[in-house]
């Protein structure tokens, strides 16, 4: 589904690349973990995969089409869904409106379908009352569940998550890991999670380690 | 959910910020509106002044040319016995008047012919001041003995009193009967001043008798009206050697000509032409000058009232323009700073929307919609308060302008050669000893009335204000969001 060919990224000089000549392939129906030490470039790679930034070298290919051809805005809108450590919800809205906004912006097949959005939130454990409260009044775990529900409401086959359990307790972490597995296996999507938590990496189908500017398949 | 709904949700969720934006925007728009209203009112007042104040041209004998002629004849006749030189002024012929009256933009004209007589069947009013003592004449009739040979009654012959500046704008009023009309030509109808009528128990319908200054002829005159003049104008008309202003009688110019003698038939001392559009006064003067003999006559323009009003209104308009621009510039800066801060605060939200794949244009449009909604409320508030602020500011400006113009006109009036006596162009008759002149004070009374601003908020004003507000908001948002939106989403979101 997604191919990274000879990808390289650096800030100022090529000699100081975070990584170089990276070749990775990701498929739908599977979950992938990218692990590594802090500052190794995991989040940067995720940004490139999420279309938040362009690689300095190499090409990203989605279903045989170059990402540069698709266009970053359209790619983010239609092809990829992102979950962040800090949830990145629209703070002036309720969980329900966050989902409806995402569905509208991404032009999801369920655009404007409140019942579907409610169903998703209910599936993820939010009560009807919580759905219409301001998101800031929910706990961290609940907010992360809303972010995941937002992903599930959109049609993107590629789901990327940056330290999605970073702010969660153990119980919530397990629940979130389970949700990502559901997304990958039941919804037949490709889930790529950047994490430094061994439990999360272990729960994924595949795990890549970034060390010394190179990726190695661990699992 | 589209950006309209997002904008609405944002405004509702952040009530405090929305209220602050509404207040700041209202304050800015309030002053912009006040400026716009004053500017429009000044425009309207200038336009009205054109219609109401008007301008005049005065055709009269060319005193300068006559004076030169007198000097030349005096020096050329050096062998003969030296004689007291006399100034020979040529009265204006009605034939010349009609030619000028036919020019474009000449609305109407007033023939002015003045003379003086002595009261015969009544007493003229005498005035005693600390500097000049008047006494009764030998026959017991009133008047100044010193100036008895000049006559104690001033006859101001006019085409119609309504056409004179005194009656049109200096506050002279007919209190009984009627004024002199064009139809009074070749009659002995007159109007007298209320003080003179009261002193002699005269009323409309009475007949009075006057004697020519030589005493050879007596004339009967029929009172058809009694007029009253503002007391300030009486004081202003008093001067050294002047008969009391109450002794001024208005008649048809034909009666004044008859008293002056047969050679004055079909003539006038001067003629005042009212020009319909004050802007055209110079063009009419130029055309009129071609029709007359400039060695005998002079045609002078008097648009001082219009120029004064125009000058006041131009100053007010210029001040209002400055208010509009200053407030607009300051408002744009203030609003832009607030919006910049607001948008910087919303960097995270922009990042989220960008990560979802929302276009930059739609994000900017969302901000614009938010500010547009704020603007609608602010325009409403400014519209409600703008008239009050505009009125207060306008009154203050007009008061200042009127005071400064009055001061300059009064100062100018002191040096004007005709300020006390014959006042070409001001529509007053030539009167003995300057009895019918006028000062700056009475002039400014009418001018001040005409410079009053009528500040009204109209839908057009509000639309204009809305347009102004939209421009300010647009510039502010473009300035504010440009910095953030040119960054990559990762920088906005993760960094």
UniProtKB/TrEMBL annotation, chain A:
<dbReference type="InterPro" id="IPR017871">
    <property type="entry name" value="ABC_transporter-like_CS"/>
</dbReference>
<comment type="similarity">
    <text>Belongs to the ABC transporter superfamily.</text>
</comment>
<keyword id="KW-0067">ATP-binding</keyword>
<dbReference type="InterPro" id="IPR017911">
    <property type="entry name" value="MacB-like_ATP-bd"/>
</dbReference>
<dbReference type="InterPro" id="IPR003439">
    <property type="entry name" value="ABC_transporter-like_ATP-bd"/>
</dbReference>
<keyword id="KW-0547">Nucleotide-binding</keyword>
<feature type="domain" description="ABC transporter">
    <location>
        <begin position="2"/>
        <end position="219"/>
    </location>
</feature>
<dbReference type="InterPro" id="IPR003593">
    <property type="entry name" value="AAA+_ATPase"/>
</dbReference>
<protein>
    <submittedName>
        <fullName>ABC transporter ATP-binding protein</fullName>
    </submittedName>
</protein>
<dbReference type="GO" id="GO:0005524">
    <property type="term" value="F:ATP binding"/>
</dbReference>
<dbReference type="InterPro" id="IPR027417">
    <property type="entry name" value="P-loop_NTPase"/>
</dbReference>
<dbReference type="Pfam" id="PF00005">
    <property type="entry name" value="ABC_tran"/>
</dbReference>
<dbReference type="GO" id="GO:0016887">
    <property type="term" value="F:ATP hydrolysis activity"/>
</dbReference>
<keyword id="KW-0813">Transport</keyword>
Automatic annotation (TrEMBL), chain B:
<dbReference type="InterPro" id="IPR050250">
    <property type="entry name" value="Macrolide_Exporter_MacB"/>
</dbReference>
<feature type="compositionally biased region" description="Low complexity">
    <location>
        <begin position="417"/>
        <end position="432"/>
    </location>
</feature>
<keyword id="KW-0812">Transmembrane</keyword>
<protein>
    <submittedName>
        <fullName>ABC superfamily ATP binding cassette transporter, membrane protein</fullName>
    </submittedName>
</protein>
<keyword id="KW-1003">Cell membrane</keyword>
<keyword id="KW-0472">Membrane</keyword>
<feature type="transmembrane region" description="Helical">
    <location>
        <begin position="323"/>
        <end position="343"/>
    </location>
</feature>
<feature type="region of interest" description="Disordered">
    <location>
        <begin position="408"/>
        <end position="442"/>
    </location>
</feature>
<dbReference type="Pfam" id="PF02687">
    <property type="entry name" value="FtsX"/>
</dbReference>
<feature type="domain" description="ABC3 transporter permease C-terminal">
    <location>
        <begin position="323"/>
        <end position="394"/>
    </location>
</feature>
<dbReference type="GO" id="GO:0022857">
    <property type="term" value="F:transmembrane transporter activity"/>
</dbReference>
<feature type="transmembrane region" description="Helical">
    <location>
        <begin position="465"/>
        <end position="485"/>
    </location>
</feature>
<feature type="transmembrane region" description="Helical">
    <location>
        <begin position="363"/>
        <end position="384"/>
    </location>
</feature>
<dbReference type="GO" id="GO:0005886">
    <property type="term" value="C:plasma membrane"/>
</dbReference>
<keyword id="KW-1133">Transmembrane helix</keyword>
<dbReference type="InterPro" id="IPR003838">
    <property type="entry name" value="ABC3_permease_C"/>
</dbReference>
């Amino acid at each position: 589904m997604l191919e990274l060919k000879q990808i390289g990224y650096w800030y100022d000089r090529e000699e100081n690349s975070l990584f170089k000549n990276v070749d990775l392939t990701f498929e739908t129906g599977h979950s992938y973990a990218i692990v590594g030490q802090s500052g190794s470039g995991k989040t940067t790679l995720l940004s490139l995969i999420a279309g938040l930034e362009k690689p300095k070298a190499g090409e990203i290919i989605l279903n045989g089409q170059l990402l540069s051809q698709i266009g970053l805005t359209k790619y983010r809108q239609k092809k990829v869904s992102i979950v962040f450590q800090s949830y990145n919800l629209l703070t002036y809205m309720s969980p329900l409106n966050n989902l409806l906004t995402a569905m509208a912006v991404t032009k999801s097949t369920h655009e404007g379908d409140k019942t579907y959005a409610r169903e998703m939130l209910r599936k993820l454990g939010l009560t009807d009352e919580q759905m219409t409260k301001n998101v800031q009044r929910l706990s961290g775990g609940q907010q992360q569940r809303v972010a995941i529900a937002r992903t599930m409401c959109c049609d993107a086959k590629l789901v990327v998550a940056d330290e999605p359990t970073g702010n969660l307790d153990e119980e919530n972490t397990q629940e979130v890991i389970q949700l990502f597995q559901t997304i990958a296996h039941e919804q037949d999507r490709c889930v790529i999670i950047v994490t430094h938590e061994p439990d999360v990496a272990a729960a994924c189908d595949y795990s890549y380690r970034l060390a010394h500017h190179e990726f190695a398949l661990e699992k | 959910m589209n950006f309209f709904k997002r904008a609405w949700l944002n405004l509702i969720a952040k009530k405090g910020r929305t209220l602050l934006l509404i207040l700041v925007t209202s304050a800015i728009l309030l002053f912009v509106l006040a400026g716009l209203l004053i500017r429009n009112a000044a425009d309207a007042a200038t336009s009205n002044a054109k219609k109401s104040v008007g301008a005049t041209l005065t055709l009269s004998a060319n005193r300068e040319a006559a004076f030169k002629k007198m000097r030349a004849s005096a020096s050329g006749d050096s062998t003969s016995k030296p004689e007291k030189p006399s100034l020979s002024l040529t009265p204006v012929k009605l034939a010349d008047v009609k030619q000028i009256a036919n020019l474009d933009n000449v609305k109407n004209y007033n023939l002015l012919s003045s003379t003086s007589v002595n009261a015969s069947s009544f007493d003229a009013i005498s005035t005693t001041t600390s500097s000049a003592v008047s006494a009764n004449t030998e026959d017991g009739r009133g008047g100044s003995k010193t100036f008895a040979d000049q006559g104690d009654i001033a006859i101001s012959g006019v085409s119609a009193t309504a056409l004179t500046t005194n009656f049109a704008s200096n506050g002279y009023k007919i209190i009984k009967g009627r004024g002199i009309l064009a139809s009074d030509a070749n009659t002995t109808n007159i109007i007298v001043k209320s003080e003179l009528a009261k002193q002699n128990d005269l009323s409309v319908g009475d007949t009075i008798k006057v004697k020519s200054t030589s005493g050879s002829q007596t004339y009967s005159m029929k009172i058809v009206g009694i007029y009253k003049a503002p007391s300030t104008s009486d004081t202003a008309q008093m001067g050294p050697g002047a008969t009391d202003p109450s002794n001024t009688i208005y008649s048809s110019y034909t009666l004044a000509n008859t008293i002056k003698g047969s050679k004055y038939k079909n003539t006038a001392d001067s003629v005042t032409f009212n020009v319909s559009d004050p802007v055209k006064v110079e063009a009419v003067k130029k055309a009129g000058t071609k029709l007359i003999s400039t060695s005998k006559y002079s045609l002078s323009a008097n648009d001082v009232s219009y120029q004064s009003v125009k000058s006041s209104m131009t100053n007010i308009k210029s001040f209002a323009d400055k208010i509009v621009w200053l407030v607009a510039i300051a408002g744009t800066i203030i609003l832009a700073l607030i919006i910049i801060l607001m948008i910087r605060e919303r960097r995270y939200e922009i990042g989220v929307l960008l990560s979802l794949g929302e276009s930059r244009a739609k994000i900017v449009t969302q901000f614009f919609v938010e500010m547009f909604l704020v603007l609608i409320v602010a325009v409403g508030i400014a519209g409600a308060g703008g008239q009050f602020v505009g009125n207060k500011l306008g009154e203050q400006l007009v008061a200042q302008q009127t005071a400064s113009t009055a001061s300059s006109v009064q100062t100018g009036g002191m040096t004007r050669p005709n300020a006390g006596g014959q006042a070409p162009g001001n529509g007053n008759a030539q009167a003995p000893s300057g009895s019918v002149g006028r000062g700056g004070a009475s002039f400014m009374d009418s001018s001040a009335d005409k410079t009053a601003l009528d500040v009204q908020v109209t839908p057009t004003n509000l639309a204009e204000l809305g347009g102004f507000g939209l421009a300010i908001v647009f510039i502010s948002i473009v300035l504010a969001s440009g910095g953030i939106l040119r960054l990559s989403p990762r920088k906005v979101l993760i960094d």
